[in-house]
Amino acid sequence: MYDPSQLRTFLAVAQTLSFTQAARRLGLRQSTVSQHVRRLEDAVGRQLFSRDTHSVELTEDGEAMLGFARRILAVHEQATAFFTGTRLRGRLRFGASEDFVLTRLPEILEGFRYDHPEVDLELTVELSGTLHEQLTAGRLD
Questions:
Q1: Fewer CB under 10 Å: which end of the chain, C or N?
Q2: How would you class 33 by CB atoms within 10 Å of its CB: exposed for 0-12, middle for 13-18, buried for 19 or more?
Q3: Per-domain boundaries in the chain
Q4: Is pLDDT above 80 for 125?
C-alpha cells in the first residue's frame, strides 16, 4: 500500500525536480520530503530519482511511478470524498490577476483538482478592477 502523503511528495519533487522547492510547495521541511521519497523508494524497491548535489532527475522507474501516483491519488481522493459525503460538484467560476496565475495558481489548482475532481473550474484572467466588477455582476463565484 502506498502512503498518499508520500505520493504527493513524490509528485511535487517530480514536477519541480527539486527537494527544496517541493518542500516549499508542500509546506514541509526538506528532510521530511527526503524521508517521504526514501520510504516510497523502499516500498517499491526501486530508485525513483537520480540525484546528486546539483540535480534531480526521474529514473525510468520514476517516470513509470508518475502515472501510477496520479491514478492512485485520484482514486484515493474519490473514495475519500464518496465515503465522507463532502464531495463538491458543479461549476466554479473564479478570477485571478495575471501575476498570480503565473506564480502560485498552478500548484493550487493541481491540489484542488485532486481534492475535488467533480468540480468544473472556469478561470478568468483580468485586472483586479475588472475582476471585482465581474464578481459584483455575478459572473464570478
A1: N
A2: buried
A3: 1-85, 88-141
A4: yes
